[in-house]
Specification:
By secondary structure, this protein is of the alpha+beta class. Helix content is 20%, strand content 44%. The relative contact order is 0.16.
């Protein structure tokens, strides 16, 4: 039998190269701190999400509704070379809170009327608190004279609306509202409330019925 001879260490070796061993990296303390911090943040987000879901299930908040239920336009004329508008407009507004557990504080409620993007009238309405499942009736009166800048096309549209005895007027409500849930009162929000109206012109004893119009309300843009 043949015996295996050991190859001297200092002799040449022609086998495959042996890769050097990489030193093991120690896990840094900063990495552990960052991982713990991320876990805490994720836990807080999950807890807040669950709390928000429970709150929604208990309170079931529903959007407040604004309606213009009546509008009377007694005067709407252009004078002074179509640069001044004379106006006399009255509106009845209904605000409906359908919520069973949410009340609302209206700390500010102003109405601004515009025609073709030109503001011509402003009205202030009183502050009030609106309780659960409550309907509140408001009134806004606009009268006076205002400088407007209408181009030729818009003036022609004005004359056409006057002949049709209907004017397309936009009214935007600027408000500051707080919600009351039990003893908790939220911070003020400023929702977007816009009413796009088709209002009949009342003149010389003629009268046309105004159709109740629901306003567009966006609370989320104010959050």
């Amino acid at each position: 039998m043949s015996q295996t001879q050991d190859v001297p260490i200092n002799d040449a070796y022609y086998g495959p190269s042996v890769p050097p061993q990489k030193p093991q990296r120690k896990r840094s303390r900063g990495c552990c701190v960052l991982s713990t911090f991320l876990k805490v943040i994720i836990s807080i987000i999950v807890i807040l999400g669950i709390a928000a879901l429970i709150f929604w299930l208990v309170v079931r908040p529903t959007e407040v509704k604004f309606y213009v239920v009546g509008a009377e336009l007694k005067e709407f004329n252009l004078t002074n070379g179509n640069t001044l508008i004379n106006y006399d407009l009255s509106m009845n507004i209904t605000v409906r809170n359908p919520n069973k557990r949410v009340g609302l504080y209206y700390d500010q409620l102003d109405a601004i009327a515009s025609y073709k993007g030109e503001r011509f009238g402003w009205a202030n309405m009183p502050r009030f608190y609106q309780g659960h499942k409550n309907t509140t009736d408001l009134r806004a009166d606009f009268s006076g004279q205002q400088l407007v800048l209408l181009n030729t096309f818009e003036i022609n549209q004005f004359n056409q609306d006057k002949n049709d005895r209907y004017f397309y007027i936009d009214v935007k409500l600027y408000s500051r509202i707080r919600f009351k849930i039990g003893a908790l009162k939220t911070r003020r929000v400023k929702p977007d409330i816009e009413c796009h109206l088709r209002i009949p012109l009342v003149a010389n004893g003629s009268f046309s019925m105004f159709e109740t119009t629901r306003c567009d309300v966006d609370f989320w843009s104010a959050v």
